[in-house]
Structure formats: C-alpha cells, structure tokens
UniProtKB/TrEMBL annotation:
GO terms for molecular function: L-glutamate N-acetyltransferase activity. GO terms for biological process: L-arginine biosynthetic process. It comes from Microterricola viridarii. GO terms for cellular component: cytoplasm. PANTHER family: AMINO-ACID ACETYLTRANSFERASE, AMINO-ACID ACETYLTRANSFERASE NAGS1, CHLOROPLASTIC-RELATED. This is N-acetylglutamate synthase. Pfam families: Acetyltransf_1 (PF00583). InterPro entries: Acyl_CoA_acyltransferase (IPR016181), GNAT_dom (IPR000182), NH2A_AcTrfase (IPR010167). Keywords: Acyltransferase, Transferase. Residues 5-140 form the N-acetyltransferase domain.
Amino acid sequence: MAQEFTVRRARTSDVRGIQALIEPLVQERILLGKDLVVFYEAVQEFRVAESADGEIIGCGALHVMWEDLAEVRTLAVSDDWRGTGVGHALLDRLLEDAAELGLSRVFCLTFEVPFFERHGFADMGEETVAPDVYAELVRSPDEGVAEFLDLARVKPNTLGNTRMLRRL
C-alpha cells in the first residue's frame, strides 16, 4: 500500500522539524549543519513533505543565486520514507518553482549522483559562469555560491561531492 504525503511550502512552525530531519545527515557529514536562525531566515525557500498524520518527512530548498541560476539545497528524506517517492516529489516541486521564477539552470552539490541524474542533472565539471557574473557572485558571503564557483575556501565542504547542473 502506498504511503500518502503532500508537498507544500514550509511554514515557520516547520523549522524545528526541518532541522531535526537533517541533523542525522549532518552527523554523517552528508549535509552541512546550519544554525536554527539560518533556517528561519530561509524558510520561504523551503518545501516540505508532510505525512498524512502531519509529520515532516522530507524537505528541500531552492536558493536563487543569479538571474538564471538557483541551487537545490538541504534535500532530505526521513529514513522511514526513503524509497517511497518523497525525494522525487520534493525535487520535482523545486524544479517547478525554478521554472516559475524564470530560471534556466539549477545547481546542486551532492553525494546522490544517480538520484539527480534521474532528474536530468549532469556533472558540471569545470563549467561556471561568464566573467562578469563570476565577479558579482564571488562577492556573496553565501557558502553555496562559493561551492558553485568551486572556490578554494570551501574545498573541505565539497570533498567527495559532485557539482551537478540541470538546464530547464
């Protein structure tokens, strides 16, 4: 029997559930930890998957980086719900959000290469952006932007991860 869940925009009341959901992945060094305040500041970027009984069972965020570029961040699914389509539904919703925003490229930094390949992402290799855009992006204090640009200061965060890109 299929388990029922819905994907919706995150609310501030979901933030502690989001943090609890990703904490095991932070401990496993799959995701970077974030302070609670960072989740509240970014709550509008998040979608959550909610089970029929109201439990937050998955989350993911879409962070706009430039006029045509965003990053999928913090995509996570509860262990009990892995393999049930929750991650796919969340990613599909984030890609829909990206299209609605008029973006043409979506980036991710991941260990889950086959999962993202199934959604049309490919290893981006050395690809970055035009020099004028690079000059603007390099000013950002955001770690995700630094990871996209493959800056030396974030190399410890990216070890073993693959930088992937999907064109919409």
